[in-house]
Amino acid sequence: MELQQMRYVIAVAETNSFTRAAQRCLVVQSALSHQIGRLEKELGARLFERTSRRVRLTPAGAAFLPAARQCLDAAERAATEVAAAVGEVRGLLKVGLIPTVAAVDIPAVLGEFHQRHPKARISLSVGASDELVEQIRQGEIEVAFLGIPVTAHPRGVMARELARERLVAVVSPDHPLAGESSVDLRRLASEVFVDLPAKTAGRAQSDLAFAAAGLTREVAFEVTNADYLARLVAAGLGVALLPPRYVAGLTGLVTIEVTDAPSRAEYVIWGRESPHPAAAAFLELLGITED
């Protein structure tokens, strides 16, 4: 069983196509199909069901896939550990972040990391804070930046708090509140809101604050993307509570101080196990070293 065969199986499973998998792996389709056929013969089981319309994993293929990924990850880690032993950082660094992260200038940090370690590759994914915590636990990503209510703490991961900030209200320039210098939650409770989906960490910051004040509000629009959330506010569809440093980079919005605003804490998190060399180098760049 060869690592290249495992790469081909993973590519087919992820693309649901032998043609697209071959394109991804930069080989001709016949060579990829031949190698997977050899592997299936060696294993004594078919890994894929092939029809003229689709390709999908068989039960045997579904059982094989996680192990194949683990083998490839182990092989890549072995190579990166050898490189690290001679002073070279390489391999894939998987970073996750929320769209509104502001405590760290992510593009600047990634740029500096790339300059220091040009042979390392970077995979950047955007998601919700609770999703990122779970991905760190599962080993799907190695480092993540998130924002959660100040009363919460990331569980099951290593974490370093980066900053705390009070949210601000944002409205469109023609909104009735646009001329106000400050408001309180009671005044905002009568407004229509645009917010992140219920039960997410980003939404919880505001929900907890209104609940603690004994207030309810109407969230008429739920949006998974913070940038699009801001667009809906700019279009006059409602009010939102957002981190001030994130709002500073937006246009077409008016910012209003909230006297009893909810707060959020930003964290960088990573796995409990020793980080891969690329992840360790990235954390060191952030000023975080293993104790």
Describe the protein in words.
This protein has 291 residues and is an alpha/beta fold. The chain contains 11 helices and 13 strands. The chain has a 5-stranded mixed beta sheet. Helix 8 links the parallel strand 9 (192-195) and strand 10 (218-222). Helix 1 crosses helix 2 (18-25). The longest helix is centred in the N-terminal third of the chain and has 27 residues, at 59-85. The mean pLDDT is 89.
Keywords, separated by commas or semicolons:
single chain; 291 residues; alpha/beta; 5-stranded mixed β-sheet; 4-stranded mixed β-sheet; 11 helices; 13 strands; 42% helix; 23% strand
Dominant shape: elongated
Put simply, the count of helices is 11
Instruction: Give the helix/strand class.
Output: alpha/beta
Please compute the radius of gyration using only Cα atoms: 24 Å
Beta-strand residue fraction? 15-25%
Provide mean pLDDT, rounded: 89
SSE string, helix = H, strand = E? HHHEEHEHEHEEEEHEHEHEHEEH
Distance between the termini: 40 Å
**How much helicity do the residues have?**
40-55%
How is the largest sheet built, in terms of strand order?
4-3-5-13-6
Largest sheet: 5 strands, mixed
Low confidence ranges: none
Number of strands: 13
